[in-house]
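ugh ok so i messed up the first submission bc i forgot one of the chains. this is the corrected input, ALL of the components this time, i swear. 1041 residues overall. if the numbers dont match what u have on ur side tell me asap before i send this to the collaborators (the ones from the other lab, u know who)
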Amino acid sequence: MKTLIARRLIEAVVMVFLTTVMVFLIMRFLPGDPALVYVSQNEIDTATPEQIAEIRHKFGIDKPIPIQYVNWIKDLAHGDLGRSVISNDSVNDEIARALPRTMYLGGCAFVLSIILGIPLGIVSAVRRGKTADLISTLIANVGITAPTFWVGIILILIFGYYLSWLPIQGWVSPSEDLWGGISHMILPVICLTVYPMSAVARQTRSAMLEVIRQDYIRTAWSRGLNERQIIIRHALRNALIPVITLIGMNIRQIFGGQVLIETVFNIYGIGKLSVDALFSSDYAIVQSVVLFMAIVVVLSSLLVDLSYGYIDPRIRQD
Amino acid sequence: MALENTMTIQKFAEAPPRISSTRRLLRVFMGRKIVIFGIIIIVLLTLMAIFAPWIAPYDPNAPALMNTLESPSKAHLLGTDQLGRDTLSRLIYGSRVTIIVSVVAVNIAAIIGMTLGLIAGFYGKVINVIIMRAMDTIMTVPPILLAVTIAAVLGGGIKNVIIALGIAMIPPYARMMCGQVLSVLKKDYIVAAEVGGASNLRIMLSHILPNCFPPLIVLLTMQVGRAVLAEASLSFLGIGIKPPDPAWGSMVSEGYQNLMIAPILSMAPGVAIMLVVFAANMVGDGLRDALDPKLRGTL
Amino acid sequence: MSVLLNVTDLRTQFKTEAGLVKAVDGVSYHINHNEIVGVVGESGSGKSVCQMSTLQLIPTPPGQIVNGQICFEGKDLLKYPANGPDMRKIRGSEIAMIFQEPMSSLNPVMTINQQLSQSMQLYQGLNKSQARKRAVELLEMVGIPAPESRVDNYPHQFSGGMRQRVMIAMGLSCKPKLIIADEPTTALDVTTQAVLLELMKNLVNQFNTSLVLVTHNLGVVARYAQRIYVMYAGRIVESGTTKEIFANPRHPYTIGLLKCVPRLDEDRSRKLVPIEGLPPNLINMPDRCSFLPRCPYRTDRCFNEPRPGLFSVGEGHEAACYVNMTEHLQSRSDKPVEIKSAAPKVAKAEKAKTDDTLLKIRNLKIHFPVTKGLLNKKVAEVKAVDGVSFDVKSGETLGLVGGERLRQDNGRAQHPEAAGTDRG
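and heres the new structure output, hopefully the right one now
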């Protein structure tokens, strides 16, 4: 098990490194000269070539690409993500401002998708063909079908416009105003939860159906155990193995959803930050955001691998 | 001889009741009403896209500033948008973007991904590590964000959206193909072919490839739904085909501006997206159950 | 001897795409106290389904028990809802079942202790530590070395034979009055088979338990069972004491089964006679003797009359056949099938031995490295094949026999040339 962890850790580091290379290369292909963007943003009307060269030097984009990369990595190692060419703010500050919002929303959606999705899938598998199964299968199938942003718009229409129950735009930090924060989070969190929850429910259902046909479940029945004991103690753990893979993938999915949902609800989180930065060729922000997401995704898949070991003794052994 | 005979007897005894495999396939595939529903939706959508100019009641891009944001009426079944364009006509024309982008992108991804997976699985070792790590790297970035980024690099336009989505969707195919190749390679008939002196290329093409197809066809169908969603997301964010041409995602986005006055502008294209994705998923589920029920759970 | 389990007219069916499969079609039998009974038949004869019906372990749907009575100590088990408390109590403390596949019948993510003691805690009122103690005792009883530490292992840490021992321990753990062993040794090595059967026999005697031994191997029942039921196509076609059935088989199917058992004590020139043809498709069977298409003794009567029921052919001996086998066997002196071809073949093979060698294996070694750590450092080696030499000559049949399955499997998978030698 220790070897496994060490191996995965090394792989994770390699993955993050490869991602930095990929991100960096893609960014250099972004159209638009960052210096010119900076010039137009800061309303320096008459930028002389010297001034532009100076700006290029300031952002370090006058050097050859490999050196730019090395410099970027060096700065990263010092915890410096660079400067936005739009706002001239440090990217660290931009991200520090956006990150809590994204983490609140994404974290809630991630946890909810698991604690709702797994029971939904279990019920549906155990009551296969019954009304409960039909309802939860329907929910799950619609859930993986509905576009996230559209779900957001429907919720805004119903709960915001028609019922006026909940605020529909913006963000209030829950640490400052608890109810205000929560009420602003409800709709976006629902939107972000729908798809991953449905995917988890579908996966749990099919894994469960597969497991309850296994010989060892028949053995458990032959030992006089009741359905509850069999489902919870004998079947669930086996069924969770494929579900965990999916849960790991859901983190990407939720990040992706946030790109859309933060736009719909006008919340300045990581997702909206990255889209806006992309549209304005603010690559310092984009590369930092993508790198950040990559690190989270790599770490989460590391956790997924470790939890396999926890659940499945066969993996623990080698 | 004798022992062999008793063995065949046993083997056959365990085989399921024999009925023709194509018939079984069709029966399972068509057996569920929901699968047939999916097929009908997809056929209708395709017809709608092909015959758009004949079906659409109005020119989808012709503004009529006299009657903007009209509610549904006999003249405009789904109302008009902020420029007075007929929503139904735009919806019909929008299906073209949906179909072209999703089908072409999925196929590009499938061809590249399968080739990479085949090479990785067959040659193994270093090549496998390089290819699969590259795939993992792509997979560390959320597909939507990756597609948005690539589209931003390449610039808008339907072609570039297809390329962006195509690249973002490569990894699942490569992974699946690689896994399939590895499992097929272990089977006795491949060993037999190897012993029989078949060349690598020959083994790859004539033995491995056909055996990998069922799961890949299923994956392909399933991915069409995801591609439709991804395309809609991109055009919702304003990436993709340029206005005034209609795409469902951008219609939702435009409608969002006037949500209070004319909710149908957002709702109609959203329902259309959902229907198509639902149909593609159901056909995918049906294909999976018919071709390879073991995949249930993995796809 | 009193009756422990009495099954009458049991019918279990499966709904499949192709139609209704009558897997068990009107079967009646009984098991006495302290008795070992063999149920014999080919795969697909309904013998396993029949036994699983007893505990209502048939997956429903597609399966369904449509008719019958299963009386266990006077209680009709089929009156109980399939997974209800009464049925569970029977499973947990009266009737135990040992399944065919030790590899897949144990839960891979639970320790042996967890799997053994859960039911004991439920039905014998033991607490956690008592149950664990009992589990250790049981493992010791079935001959698992170092049971105190092994009890906390997972199934994948046991070999196939050991897992089946665990299954037997499980079967015994509920102190059952009846153990149903569904092909308990089929998936195992020959040597392990014998050891386990002997073990089961001893334990069953020790605990005064009845045992139903389901198998397709007549050799197994001959040694252990007191009575035998022969099943074919979902029905019992012959029943009687083991002695009687071996000495005086009355159903052509039983005779066929007896003929395919190789016996070392016989001349090699005796040909093993396969039962020609395939077991019938259990869908839409005509109302005729189901063995008819494969029967070498069939008469016009068999074609014209409905399916024969069981009738008595001796003391406690019943068979479902119109043909009077005694006459047949006497008049044709036990050889309904000619053996002409066998003798020359042997001669030919012997002659061929002098001919050219097809395959020569000299000092074949296949070693697998055992690696450890990050860098795959080689720490040991498994010598799967270590210096094996043999020749295969043209026309010869060579058998490679061994207790350790691994060696042949690896030789086969990785080096198909070596596998060729098995086939000769």
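quick check: The first strand of chain C starts at residue 3 and ends at 16. that seems consistent at least. The interface with chain B takes residues 16-19, 21, 42-44, 216, 260, 262, 271-279, 281-283, 413, 416-417 of chain C (CB under 8 Å).
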